Amino acid sequence: MTSEEKGSTSAKILYRPVGLVSSMVAGLAASALFRWVWKRASHGDAEDPPRALETDYPLREILVAAVAQGAIYAFVKALTDRGGARAFQRLTGEWPGS
Predict the structure, then answer these.
(1) What's the whole-model pTM score?
(2) Using alpha carbons only, how large is the chain's radius of gyration in Å?
(3) pLDDT, tens digit, for every residue of 59-93?
């Protein structure tokens, strides 16, 4: 087993606040990135992405926005989770994962 495969219980507990903060930062970063991408990719004057209950947009556009938002969020979240865990491991010598 490598240190990435099994983390100690104390490392998991110590990492929780770091993971919580990094998750919040990842959510904010993903939201900002999605708005930036949508603003440049969408046609028309709308700067904000469509929401599911807005009747001004066709279902196709709403679904494309939802898929793009989900993909961007998952990418940013994975990147920040992995980066945070690697930084924690460099600082403590312990991998915070399971």
Answers:
(1) 0.79
(2) 18
(3) 998 999 999 999 999 999 999 999 989 999 999 89
Instruction: Quote the tokens at residue 6.
Output: 């099994």
Q: At a CB cut-off of 8 Å and minimum separation 6, what does 22 contact?
A: 80, 81, 83, 84
Query: N- to C-terminal Cα distance for the chain?
Result: 12
If you search the block for the tokens 């495969």, which residue do you land on? 5
CA distance 28 to 16: 19
Cα 28 to Cα 8, 32, 37, 96: the distances in Å are 30, 6, 14, 23
Helix or strand (DSSP H, E) at 86: helix 59-92
- From the list 80, 94, 81, 90, the residue with the least C-alpha distance to 11 is 94
Distance CA 69, CA 28 (A): 12
